[in-house]
Design goal:
Number of strands: 6
Radius of gyration: 23 Å
Number of domains: 2
Pfam families: M20_dimer (PF07687)
CATH architecture of the largest domain: 2-Layer Sandwich
Protein name: Peptidase M20 dimerisation domain-containing protein
CATH class of the largest domain: Alpha Beta
Largest sheet: 4 strands, antiparallel
Strand content: 15-25%
Structural class: alpha+beta
InterPro entries: Bact_exopeptidase_dim_dom (IPR036264), Peptidase_M20/M20A_hydrolases (IPR052030), Peptidase_M20_dimer (IPR011650)
Helix content: 40-55%
GO molecular function: dipeptidase activity
Length: 230
């Protein structure tokens, strides 16, 4: 899964009457729109698995005043933590350029970092064995990076980790975060699959507790994986 970071930005300008003396104003809405357009230009150079999302949180609700304040919320995603840091830097440049072009001041805050997920082969292989006993055929690992994000990535930088996914029956047009998918996830059939996954995860965790060789191998692989990232 992708690494992800949240970014909040606030533009501060100066009010003026839009009809009487607009030249006296410093337009915070122009700064926000300019930064958004800067990112739109940047998108052509984004890698296929990188994502940038935006929501305008505070904008003017009247048309005859040059606004002195706007606020936006951004999310940035990239397959690796290193790539995320590069993309965040580019986004900050786009935001700061909007402020520079309009004469506004800008405040940028970063929070809620989700790292990418560093999967542990030992855990994945053991989980594959356990869930296979329930006649479920799953991949040991999926090499294509999924463009969603989760705090399990942060866990994987601290300890050997696996992150499993499982299928449920849903309409062909359904997708996570859609109401039809939420309805499908609430069925008895979906809950039954979740129980099988939970049991398989629990058995994998138990093996880590009681099998010293497995424990040592998982930690050795984890240290090698983290060292490669650094």
């Amino acid at each position: 899964m992708n690494a992800r970071k949240n970014i909040h930005c606030e533009f501060t300008g100066r009010n003026a009457h839009a009809g009487g003396n607009p030249w006296e104003g410093i337009n915070a809405l122009d700064a926000l729109v300019s930064s958004y357009n800067n990112v739109a230009v940047l998108r052509q150079q984004l890698l296929p698995d990188q994502r940038v999302h935006c929501a305008f949180l505070d904008t003017p609700n009247v048309a005859n005043v040059i606004p002195d304040y706007t606020k936006a919320f951004w999310q940035v995603r990239s397959p690796t933590l290193k790539g995320l840091n590069v993309l965040v830097s580019k986004l900050r440049n786009c935001i700061e350029a909007g402020a520079l072009a309009t004469g506004c001041q800008v405040k940028v805050d970063e929070d809620e970092l989700y790292t990418d997920v560093r999967l542990n082969d030992t855990l994945c292989e053991r989980y594959h064995i356990h869930i296979g006993r329930y006649s479920r055929n799953v991949l040991k690992r999926h090499d294509k990076v999924l463009t969603g994000s989760s705090d399990i990535g942060n866990v994987s930088y601290e300890t050997p980790t696996l992150h499993t996914m499982f299928a449920i029956t849903a309409p062909t047009t359904s997708f996570p975060h859609h109401p039809t998918f939420a309805a499908a996830a609430g069925t008895d059939e979906a809950h039954a699959e979740a129980l099988i996954v939970g049991k398989s995860l629990a058995l994998t965790g138990w093996d880590m507790i009681v099998e010293n060789d497995m424990y040592d191998l998982a930690w050795r692989q984890w240290k090698e994986e983290i060292a490669r990232e650094e």
